[in-house]
Amino acid sequence: MTHSAQLSQLIQNELASLIAIRHDLHTHPEIGLNETRTSKVIQRELHSAGIKFQSGLGGGTGVIAQLPGLGDKSIGLRADIDALPIIEETGVSYSSQSPGIMHACGHDGHTTILIGVARVLAKLAKIAPLPRPVTLLFQPAEENLGGATRMIADGCLTGLLGPSISEIYGLHCWPWLAVNSVGVRNGPLLASTDYFSITVHGRGSHAAWPHLSHDPVIAMAAIITALQTVVSRNTDPNVAVVVSVCVVMAGHAFNVIPQDGALEGTIRTLNEQVRANTIKRIEEIVDHAARMHGCTADTKISAGCPPTVNHPTATDAVRRAAQQIPAAQLVEMENPFMGGEDFAFYGKEIPASFFLLGIQDPSRPSMPALHHPSFNFNDDAISTGIEAFCRLAISDS
Q: Out of 71, 81, 180, 351, which could bridge 384 as a Cys pair, Cβ 3.0 to 4.6 Å?
């Protein structure tokens, strides 16, 4: 029998055990770069499947595994393994036992899916050689935007373990798609995620004598309002940009105009030119708005991940894989989303495609969003995630 014919049954044989692993990972979540127990679970499963791997990567907890196959170029499949600093409110029997930490973004599901891929491909490889080598990347620290670049710096794409990777794929559970849907999109799917902090310096005074001050609060209010013109007046209306001020800090007493104040927020864009133009305009607006009110401002913009841009050829491969899964529904995503993903860094190096795995239970009108205290990955999506990755791996093209 062919690899394809064996695939569905092999996945079904693994499901009960994999669901138990997912629940175990959910019970023991770990923050990025501290995923020590999670990494040990991954290594245990790879060792049990007889798969060659290397640990201690991406800052210490990342793992890369290699399944041999025909040819001299490997296909890469990636899962993120870290959790979030959120207090869990799901009420499930396997809730987090790590105070203040939970898997609120489904990385426990992603990790479980890639463990399942490892098991299934290892069994298929015993039937007949895989059409090409397969590299599995278990990446730490996606949430704090350090894991992907650390894995790349460690050589995970360029032959650290077996042949170099010529194309790479990742997935993310998506609570806004029906369970077992596979959402795809050519080009930008997710946004860049830059961070800004602004410190406004003024002159403090008693609140009763405001004329003696250079009020940083007034300057901050002007900056907050003016920053929205970056979107409304400096950006093509057909181009998506988000500038959100999310932290405002100034003063400690109701009757004292403070000396300084601070703002923090995020910038989201979908291409590098718009990203650069947006950052430049923010810096200009902050400087001029502060000086207009007799203050000065220091602006620091820290680069996050770039936009996640799907390569058309790689994304066509995802389409073909999804269409071969009997239970799956292929969904073309009309618009990108302004959330971000550090999978984008892999796409800066090699052809890449990131797709969305539906997890919404059709019997429920809605489910909690990603990063919500009540979010929980839907186990019913595990088999489709595994099959999508496996079909990508065993495809001849």
A: 180
**How are strands ordered across the β-sheet holding 194-201?**
241-250, 260-269, 194-201, 296-302
How far apart CA 357 and CA 167 sit, in angstroms, is 19
Give pLDDT tens digits for 291-312. 999 999 999 999 999 999 999 9
Taking the whole predicted model, whether its pTM rises above 0.70 is answered as yes
Among the listed residues 322, 331, 381, the one whose alpha carbon sits nearest the alpha carbon of residue 19: 381
Strands 74-80 and 165-178, by their bridges, are parallel
CA distance 252 to 254: 7
- What's the token pair of residue 368? 């909690």
Report the C-alpha gap between 290 and 214 in whole angstroms: 10
CA-based nearest residue to 11, from 123, 111, 125? 123
State whether residue 265 is helix, strand or coil.
strand
Closest CA to 115 of 63, 56, 37: 63
**CA–CA distance, 350 with 293 (Å, rounded to integer):** 48
Evaluate whether 263 touches 198 at the Cβ level (below 8 Å): yes
Residue type, 68: P
pLDDT digit string (tens) for 214-232?
999 999 999 999 999 999 9
Alpha helices (runs of H) in 228-381, residue ranges in sequence order:
229-232, 272-292, 312-323, 344-347
According to DSSP, the β-strands at 329-332 and 181-184 are parallel
- The C-alpha atoms of residue 174 and residue 189 are separated, in whole angstroms, by 13
